[in-house]
Inverse folding.
């Protein structure tokens, strides 16, 4: 019996010591809250990184690139965001080349409330497509400032086409054409030739000059695309749900009163009676045939005298 009491007492003492050494319920709750906060902060950081529109398009100085970028994202207010984007373009020495702000209706439905009224429900989507020309060196800075407008980023596309060797090839071809033009002009001026040969040579020189001009214009266009990149931005906001009650015209609203309708009915009845009388006079031949047939029938049925 003493041995059993000793074992029970030892067990109770051990349980008390374990409960005293282990974490309390308050500590468990604080740990759970800290873990939840840490997970929420991690998710918020992931969401923020997904909605960031940062670009890093730095390229080697000796190479030439045509940069084009396209993005689409959700904003709080399309009109205000459009104005902000246009201001940013001017801030970074860029300019607007296209803007299409529109309200698009979708999911329209009609529900009849009464005989002369219906409830019209529709969803209005406000969106805008903006195209900008931005200096090449300012593209990354402008895009970083767009992060203040983004509520949700749909996508971002960046394309860079290298044209270093295209520019070099056009430049070499233009130089060759200019040298050929100089030699041809010298040949025409110094050589005595016939009129036809001189005319053909001058036309050939003119064609070469046109080719050289086209190459020069193409180089200028490529240089402009290298200096100013194209940025296309699609922005939209959350749909606006619009409802209105439309009153339909009542077909009985313009109906005349009872006495006017009775008078109209009498007049219409008299006109119908006139048409009926005219119709009877038009079928007079039918009455004649009927009378002749009746007389013939009576005569045939009359008994003959002996």
């Amino acid at each position: 019996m003493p041995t059993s009491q000793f074992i029970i007492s030892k067990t109770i003492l051990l349980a008390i010591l374990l409960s005293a050494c282990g974490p309390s319920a308050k500590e468990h709750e604080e740990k759970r809250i800290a873990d939840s906060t840490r997970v929420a902060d991690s998710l918020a950081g992931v969401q923020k990184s997904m909605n960031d529109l940062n670009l890093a398009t730095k390229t080697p100085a000796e190479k030439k690139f045509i940069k084009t970028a396209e993005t689409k994202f959700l904003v709080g207010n399309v009109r205000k965001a459009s104005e902000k984007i246009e201001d940013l373009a001017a801030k970074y020495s860029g300019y607007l080349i296209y803007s299409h702000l529109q309200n698009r209706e979708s999911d329209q439905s009609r529900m009849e409330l009464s005989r002369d009224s219906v409830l019209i429900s529709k969803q209005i989507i406000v969106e805008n497509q903006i195209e900008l020309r931005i200096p090449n060196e300012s593209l990354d800075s402008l895009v970083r400032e767009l992060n203040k407008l983004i509520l949700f980023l749909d996508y971002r596309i960046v394309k860079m086409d290298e044209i270093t060797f295209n520019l070099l090839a056009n430049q070499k071809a233009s130089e060759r054409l200019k040298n050929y033009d100089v030699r041809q002009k010298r040949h025409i001026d110094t050589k005595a030739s016939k009129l036809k040969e001189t005319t053909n040579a001058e036309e050939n020189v003119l064609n070469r000059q046109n080719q050289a001009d086209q190459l020069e214009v193409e180089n200028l266009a490529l240089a402009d695309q290298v200096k100013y990149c194209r940025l296309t931005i699609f922005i939209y906001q959350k749909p606006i749900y619009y409802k209105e009650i439309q009153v339909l015209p009542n077909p009985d609203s313009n109906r005349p009163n009872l006495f006017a309708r009775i008078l109209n009915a009498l007049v219409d009845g008299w006109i119908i009676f006139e048409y009926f009388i005219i119709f009877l006079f038009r079928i007079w031949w039918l009455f004649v045939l009927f009378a002749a047939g009746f007389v013939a029938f009576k005569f045939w049925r009359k008994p003959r005298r002996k």
